[in-house]
TrEMBL record:
InterPro entries per record: Kinase-like_dom_sf
Name of the featured protein: Uncharacterized protein
Amino acid sequence: MPLPGSATLQIKLIEPLTAASREKDPPFPEVWKVQSGDQTYVARIYDPLYVEDDGFYDIFLFCARSLVKEYKSYELLKDVQGNLVPRYIGCFLSIIDTPPSVPIPEKRSVFVTLLQYIPGEDLRHSSEWSICASHRAAVRRSGCIADRELARCQIWHQDLAERNTILKVGPPSKEPFCHDLSCKLRWQTPATLLRELHPTIPSPIAIIDFEHVDIGPKWYLPPNADGDYDLLENGPGWFSKYWFS
């Protein structure tokens, strides 16, 4: 499977973003907050050294397929880049420092996908947060809209887990969005119930990680956000019972 065209890139690894994202972590984090020039980005590394290997598949082929799926997904999602998903900067060949304790040369050439860095937190620890009912409903509805919008773009996310859903964090507003003094999102996210995704309406969440997706048309779409259905059964994978309490 051919890889997308690439160019060389100089990046500086700043902070790992996937160290605790799996029960069995890869030897070294594969997603990093990086700096290139004076800009901050997210870099996903496609290299056997940085990918979890259970020994059940060809790790080199897995890296190649994952890179291509990300590339094709962002191509189909071009209309919602920078809002529902990060902006796709490009695929590059980069030389990075080899992790300590690895008995190979100090520098290593790897393929990386460079993405927009979106300030925020993923939903892995959301059950520990204090969020009011209005904000939980807003995030829940946004998840339904995101699921449907991905499907409209012919992207069927197979790993829409909490770790792959970022709750955006922006500058605090001048006025609170709710009256719950303990709500984590009181100064950050409008507690409105979005009814559609539109370029002029910022999505409060962003979806990431498109290496586990089905691509292409299907005969159905996920239920809309106003539908009368069981969200715990049919909604995005991160809809835990916390969002309904």
